[in-house]
Write a structure and sequence with these properties.
Layout lengths: L2 H8 L12 E5 L3 H18 L3 E7 L7 H12 L10 H14 L4 E7 L12 H6 L5 H6 E7 L3 H4 L3 H4 L3 E5 L9
Length: 179
């Protein structure tokens, strides 16, 4: 799929959260392409002057603890954040503060190296992430893009139940070289 088609899938309006695509999984050939994709997405948002904040999180920083996931997400939107979150409620309080200070209406959370989510797959926080942590504001204003070298179905043992509203896209930055 070409980059413009991918971006049009990402920027679908999210007025009705229950029917909106909230998660895209993009398979990239390598981690450098994941970084390049997030950069292109950021440039695209800048060019369009849209009301979006692009969060750039690296799941490699998750070290078998759900608290690490909160830190990755918080730092992706608020680079100054060094808070430790003891619970989902603490994390959501921080998210609400970041959102209140922002002039943006939509957050796009890019989680690079998403295969490292496997390290915390046994914790309910993974399923909670894709359900918006049960928070109406998070559900409405955050879209999630996971980027990995693996397809979504091979990343987590229960990927289809964790994020049933997921579109899988294979990103080919140089086009399809097959003849």
């Amino acid at each position: 799929m070409d980059i413009k088609s991918i971006f049009s899938s990402i920027f679908i309006s999210s007025e009705v959260p229950s029917t909106t695509l909230r998660h895209l999984h993009i398979r990239c050939p390598d981690s450098d392409q994941q970084i390049a994709f997030v950069k292109k997405l950021s440039d695209y948002v800048e060019d369009k002057s849209d009301d979006y904040i692009i969060g750039n999180g690296n799941c490699l920083m998750i070290d078998k603890s759900p608290k690490d996931l909160f830190a990755v997400i918080a730092q992706s939107f608020d680079g100054k954040s060094s808070s430790s979150y003891r619970s989902v409620a603490d994390f959501l309080k921080h998210f609400h503060n970041v959102y209140a200070k922002s002039s943006s209406s939509q957050f796009i959370l890019c989680l690079r190296r998403a295969e490292y989510l496997q390290d915390i797959e046994g914790y309910p926080v993974i399923a909670d992430l894709f359900r918006g942590f049960g928070d109406p504001m998070f559900k409405k204003y955050v879209k999630i893009i996971t980027l990995s070298t693996l397809p979504w179905t091979l990343m987590l043992s229960n990927a289809s139940t964790i994020s049933p509203m997921c579109i899988f896209i294979e990103y080919k930055p140089y086009g399809d070289k097959r003849k």
